[in-house]
Structures are given as C-alpha cells and as structure tokens.
Amino acid sequence: MSAENELLYQQFKKVFEQYYNELCNYALTFLKDLSSSEDVVQEVFVRIWEKRQDIVTSENIKFYLYVAVRNNSLTYLNKSKKVKVVELNEYDAAEENRLSPEEADALPDYKTQLGNAMDRLPPKCKEVFVLSRLSRQSYKEIAETMGISVKTVENQMGKALRILREFVREKRALFGLIMIDIINLFR
C-alpha cells in the first residue's frame, strides 16, 4: 500500500471509529430497527471509502455524515414503507431478567414511556432534539447539518422541551420525576 493510501486508510478508520456508533443511534431514531440503521450507516461509509480522496480529508466530514445518514434513512423508509418495530436486544433481555415477574409488572415501562414522549415530537423537532441531546452537537452544527438557521434550531429545541415537559406533567408520579431527570441529564 502506498504512503498516500495508507494515510487515507488511517483517516478513514479514525472517522469510522469516531462516528459509527453515533450515526447508528441517529439512524435508529428514524428507522427504529438496529439492523437497518447499521445497514444505512455502513452504506454511507462505503460511499465515503469509494470517494475517499474527496471526502475523508474534508473538515466538514461530520456534517456530511449526518446529512447522508438522515437522507439515506428517509430514502430507506420511503422505499420499504416499513412498519416501525423496536426489537428487544440482548442487553434489554438481560435487564428484564433481573426482576421477578411480579416486580416487573409493578414497575411502569419506562422505555415505552420515553418512546411515547419522543413520538409526540414533530419530526423536525425530534431530529433537532436527538442531534442536540444524544449526538451532543451544538446548535450551529445542527443548523449546518439540517440546512436551517440557528434560530430555528433554538425554536425547535424550545418546542421539544415544552412538549416533553407537558408529557411529564400528564404522567406525573414517579415516571414524571424520572423523565425530568432524563431531560435535565441531556442539558
């Protein structure tokens, strides 16, 4: 392998290792299926490798990746008209097995409730929230990724937080306290 190809390979590997998991989580917000999310992200990285000299060395690689994953996820949904299904993975199954059946029945299903809260968000609002709180992007980075103004990002975040707080108020009790902790955790 030539020195130039070795350098490109190392740059590609670094970008892949840095963003792969984040991008899979981002795609998962659209697709609700881990396998499909991984497929979409892998497809994006294959395209990057094919165009490696143009893209891998770009300073805007992060923005390119998020836009490409978003667009490919939406294309995937349009092509497949897939019903959104969330599968129980091995980690979730292990978590569930720690409680007795009586204990599990007594507890509210927090994952479902969190999913219900996130489902209340309009698509653009949800995307801004996920990019900000889960992917830890700045408002400026989100604006560039989505092609909107920073002010729009601020407005969408405000809207998301209002909707989530309203959901918490509706649920009250213990779940409300946990959701507030979760929202504050991402601040």
Structural summary, described in words:
This protein has 187 residues and is mainly alpha-helical. The chain has 2 domains: 3-80, Orthogonal Bundle (Rna Polymerase Sigma Factor, Chain: A); 108-185, Winged helix-like DNA-binding domain superfamily/Winged helix DNA-binding domain (Arc Repressor Mutant, subunit A, Orthogonal Bundle). Helix content is 80%, strand content 0%. It contains 11 helices and no strands. The protein has helices spanning 3-31, 34-50, 52-55, 61-80, 90-97, 101-106, 110-119, 123-134, 139-146, 150-171, 173-185. The longest helix has 29 residues, at 3-31. It is elongated and about 60 Å long. The model is unreliable at 82-99 (pLDDT under 50).
Count of separate structural domains: 2
- Overall average residue pLDDT: 75
* Major sheet details: none
CATH class of the largest domain: Mainly Alpha
Provide the gyration radius in Å.
19 Å
Q: Which CATH architecture of the largest domain?
A: Orthogonal Bundle
Report the portion of residues in β strands.
under 5%
Give me the secondary-structure topology.
Elements: H1 3-31, H2 34-50, H3 52-55, H4 61-80, H5 90-97, H6 101-106, H7 110-119, H8 123-134, H9 139-146, H10 150-171, H11 173-185
Helix pairs in contact: 1-2, 1-4, 1-8, 2-4, 4-9, 8-10, 9-10, 10-11
